[in-house]
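Q: What would this chain look like folded?
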Amino acid sequence: MKKERLLTRNLIIKTLTDKLKPLCYVHAFWEGGAAAFNRIDQWSDIDLYAAVDEDKVQETFNTIEKTLGTLSPIEEKLEVPQLPWPGISQIFYKLKNASEYLLIDFAVIQLSAPDKLLEPEIHGNTVFYFNKNNKITIPQLDKDDFAKKINTRLKRLKTRFQMFNIFVQKEINRGNSLEAMDLYQNMTLATLVEALRIKHNPFHYNFRMRYIHYELSKENVKKLEHLYFVKDMKDLEEKYREATNWFNKIISEIA
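A: My prediction, written as structure tokens:
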């Protein structure tokens, strides 16, 4: 039996472009993610966006799914129930005849949506496949407003850390290894990572671990690797103290 050739990202994008462009209610179609940061490799997924009329969101998704279906059966579909940005709907697709890494992350954005996730400082240089009459413009980031947001976030991080980071030690004292490890990762290290990102690349302060190997120095990445890989409770307690001291040092420098 002849093995099906896997779909390429270029074929998927071209097929969608050819189908969406003639539709009067689809005003622009572009790619973000790895493409916007010039980091596409063999494991990259496809982050796609379409700007459409307000009442055409579901119709656009229907067209997307029918078009993908001409290329391959849709093996899995996951709709994101609620996003923090009004006017944006998102569905993930896994195609049977594509690499398991080549997920399609498709956001359909109402033309009136106040935030279309296009600021280059945050989202990179998006790749437009069409933009009818230049309907979609690249916005300028309000740097003063962003600075206020970062200052507010820093105060919250500092307060939360001072109040709850001790919970790690509490569970270590109790001998509750799983609770201690969970709190260490989700409180101590997660807060440390956010503080590091604010210090070195504040535009991605809330990206968690995404792009971290590209955006932090090798020295900082190596230190984080050391702190993340824990072998036992004694090692956890030592690394918990290291991470706590590092966070406090960073906060003293930037807060």
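The domain at 9-134 is CATH 3.30.460.10 (Beta Polymerase; domain 2).
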